[in-house]
């Protein structure tokens, strides 16, 4: 051992000596700043000006395969290249969320997500957990306002087990009363945690303001009184009404084979209702209506103000959804803790950061089946509220008459990069394909999506701004020490045509 240490010390000493000699050599040959400017050849591709680039050669992804089973369930798969990881992701995406709950039962969809994992006739909650852990797999779920998802990440050799588990919990869950009672406490604790996450709370308030007295305005978790009263009958009724073949997509990605997945789903997914009612029919029967309202929660105890300003957006399949995505990217985002802002491509981020008007700002664009919301969310100090409100509204309305081709091009490139980053890994690919099958009825190829984005120019942005911003209603949600926040009527007046 001593001999080995001695050799190591000698090698380290030799490396250090060589490094010192190189350092001395660099010092001896140091040049002035002008003399160290790199050759032009190293700078010819470095430019602050955004450029149009043909990305099509890099958008050749593995083929998406789609099959529709006789019972109406759609199966979509996208295999990874042979050289990639031997992992697979598979999940069930269902056209069902809090929007479709019966009156007085808000919170049922989320409660059901919890109860699905509490045991079936074949698997207890503990044996299910052990089975997944023994495989080194991951089983998870989430509920949104329009969709519910259950998915698993497994090694490719265990894909059959994953499909069996998903089929079992979705068709054979028992919902024992003792588990329902215990889960009430779990969800109530989750609600307490969410109440501490201001970003979650402010967007719940924003939805309540924008979709007043409509299920889209309800929170996903539901009110406490509903959590205390949701019963086994409510859960079973929600499954029979909404977990139907017509509204279900099984999506798999990674090391998967399409025919194998189709055969597994066909043999195991047999008990779901074949009710032909679609989510579109339910939405048409009760469409969402944007309400230009506000929710203000004044609290002097809060250290910061949380402010969200929203305008009416569009549904997933609306032709204007892509330009509004570009507008979201134009608005951009910034956070004081990150430190990037002065050099941001977003005019709003630059103004906010350089003037110290906010702690953070983030643009958002949320789509639903028939409607959407887009706007700006900020956190700031109370004394900055009036000036921040002025800057944000000024930037929102600026898009109607003053936006350059350069900044739109930059936003298009940023949006395309963001979309590609969101499909990194088999889980993300399965999620992307499952969600698109529910929202578009197909998986939109990236070359087509990018072509739609590239078609958006400055004139398109101005047209969209005049259509969706000027003379349109505004929804406001604000929390904290908000005495300095302008009245709702002020926000509304600032977007009228006479202010341009």
Automatic annotation (TrEMBL):
<dbReference type="InterPro" id="IPR050361">
    <property type="entry name" value="MPP/UQCRC_Complex"/>
</dbReference>
<dbReference type="InterPro" id="IPR001431">
    <property type="entry name" value="Pept_M16_Zn_BS"/>
</dbReference>
<dbReference type="InterPro" id="IPR011765">
    <property type="entry name" value="Pept_M16_N"/>
</dbReference>
<protein>
    <recommendedName>
        <fullName>Mitochondrial processing peptidase</fullName>
    </recommendedName>
</protein>
<keyword id="KW-0175">Coiled coil</keyword>
<dbReference type="GO" id="GO:0004222">
    <property type="term" value="F:metalloendopeptidase activity"/>
</dbReference>
<feature type="domain" description="Peptidase M16 C-terminal">
    <location>
        <begin position="229"/>
        <end position="415"/>
    </location>
</feature>
<keyword id="KW-0496">Mitochondrion</keyword>
<feature type="coiled-coil region">
    <location>
        <begin position="118"/>
        <end position="145"/>
    </location>
</feature>
<dbReference type="GO" id="GO:0005739">
    <property type="term" value="C:mitochondrion"/>
</dbReference>
<dbReference type="Pfam" id="PF00675">
    <property type="entry name" value="Peptidase_M16"/>
</dbReference>
<dbReference type="Pfam" id="PF05193">
    <property type="entry name" value="Peptidase_M16_C"/>
</dbReference>
<dbReference type="InterPro" id="IPR011249">
    <property type="entry name" value="Metalloenz_LuxS/M16"/>
</dbReference>
<dbReference type="GO" id="GO:0046872">
    <property type="term" value="F:metal ion binding"/>
</dbReference>
<comment type="similarity">
    <text>Belongs to the peptidase M16 family.</text>
</comment>
<dbReference type="InterPro" id="IPR007863">
    <property type="entry name" value="Peptidase_M16_C"/>
</dbReference>
<dbReference type="GO" id="GO:0006508">
    <property type="term" value="P:proteolysis"/>
</dbReference>
<feature type="domain" description="Peptidase M16 N-terminal">
    <location>
        <begin position="75"/>
        <end position="224"/>
    </location>
</feature>
């Amino acid at each position: 051992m001593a001999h080995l240490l001695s050799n190591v010390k000698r090698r380290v000493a030799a490396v250090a000596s060589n490094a010192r000699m190189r350092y001395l050599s660099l010092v001896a040959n140091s040049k002035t700043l002008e003399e160290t400017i790199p050759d032009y050849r190293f700078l010819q591709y470095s430019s602050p000006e955004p450029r149009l680039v043909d990305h099509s050669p890099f958008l050749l992804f593995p083929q998406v395969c789609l099959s529709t089973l006789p019972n109406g369930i759609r199966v979509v798969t996208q295999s990874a290249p042979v050289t990639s990881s031997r992992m697979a992701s598979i999940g069930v995406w269902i056209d069902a969320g809090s929007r479709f709950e019966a009156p007085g039962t808000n919170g049922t969809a989320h409660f059901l997500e919890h109860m699905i994992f509490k045991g079936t006739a074949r698997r207890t909650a503990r044996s299910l957990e052990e089975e997944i852990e023994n495989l080194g797999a991951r089983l998870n779920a989430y509920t949104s306002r329009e969709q519910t998802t259950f998915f698993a990440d497994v090694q490719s050799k265990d894909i059959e087990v994953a499909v069996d588990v998903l089929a079992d919990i979705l068709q054979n869950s028992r919902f024992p009363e003792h588990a329902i009672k215990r889960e009430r406490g779990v969800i109530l604790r989750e609600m307490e945690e969410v109440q501490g996450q201001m970003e979650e709370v402010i967007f719940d308030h924003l939805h309540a303001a924008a979709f007043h007295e409509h299920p889209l305005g309800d929170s996903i978790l539901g009110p406490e009184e509903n959590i205390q009263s949701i019963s086994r009958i409510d859960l079973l009724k929600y499954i029979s009404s909404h977990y139907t073949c017509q509204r279900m997509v099984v999506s798999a990605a990674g090391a998967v084979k399409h025919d194998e997945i189709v055969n597994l789903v066909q043999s195991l997914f047999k008990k779901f209702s074949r009710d032909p009612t679609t989510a579109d029919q339910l939405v048409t029967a009760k469409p969402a209506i944007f309400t230009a309202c506000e929710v203000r929660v004044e609290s002097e105890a809060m250290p910061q103000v949380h402010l969200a300003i929203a305008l009416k957006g569009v549904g997933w399949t609306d032709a204007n959804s892509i330009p509004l995505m570009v507008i979201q990217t134009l608005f951009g985002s910034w956070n004081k803790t990150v430190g990037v802002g002065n050099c941001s491509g977003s005019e709003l981020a630059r103004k906010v950061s350089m003037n110290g008007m906010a702690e953070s700002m983030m643009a958002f664009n949320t789509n639903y089946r028939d409607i959407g919301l887009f706007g700006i969310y900020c956190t700031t100090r109370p004394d900055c509220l009036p000036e921040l409100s002025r800057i944000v509204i000024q930037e929102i309305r600026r898009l109607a008459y003053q936006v350059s081709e350069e900044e739109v091009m930059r936003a298009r490139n940023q949006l395309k990069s963001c979309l590609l980053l969101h499909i990194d890994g088999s889980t993300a690919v399965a999620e992307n394909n499952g969600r698109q099958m529910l929202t578009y009825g197909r998986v939109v190829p990236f070359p087509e999506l990018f072509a739609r984005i590239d078609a958006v120019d400055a004139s398109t942005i101005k047209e969209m701004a005049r259509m969706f911003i000027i003379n349109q209603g505004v929804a406001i949600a604000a929390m904290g020490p908000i005495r300095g926040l302008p009245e709702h009527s002020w926000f509304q007046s600032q977007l009228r045509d006479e202010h341009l």
